[in-house]
Specification:
Elements: E1 4-11, H1 17-34, E2 38-45, E3 52-59, H2 62-74, E4 95-100, E5 103-108, E6 113-116
Antiparallel strand pairs: 1-3, 1-4, 2-3, 4-5, 5-6
Length: 117
């Protein structure tokens, strides 16, 4: 698999996953239809823990991801009122994982950059 892959794990408030998905859907459509290099931008709901959600993103290359990330940082988040606190998640944990160049990166707010783990 080439390109950049993001796995974003989220946790909805009890019973609010469907509402979050509905609020998030317009952003997904916007990203998929207007951002070059977007190969996947989808929300999935856990079959066994329905309040657990995952966004899978796949970008053609790092340049496409960086362009997306610049836009994403300027956008107003959608549906945040439906998200729960990570400590309330029954299994797994909330967070973001990013993979490119066979490495794992994390976003360092102090450096305002993606850095290798």
């Amino acid at each position: 698999m080439a390109g950049v892959r993001l796995v974003v794990n989220l946790h909805a408030k009890p019973g609010q996953a469907t509402a979050y998905a509905a609020a998030w859907a317009p952003r997904a459509e916007e990203v998929r239809s207007t951002e070059p290099g977007c190969l996947q931008y989808e929300l999935f709901q856990s079959a066994s823990h329905p309040d657990n959600l995952t966004v899978l993103e796949w970008w053609e290359d790092r340049a496409a991801f960086e362009a997306h990330w610049a836009l994403e940082r300027e956008r107003t988040p959608l549906g945040v009122e439906f998200l729960g606190h990570p400590r309330d998640r029954e299994v797994g944990r909330d967070g973001l994982e990013i993979y490119w160049e066979q490495q794992t990166y994390r976003f360092d707010r102090a450096e305002d950059a993606w850095l290798p783990r």
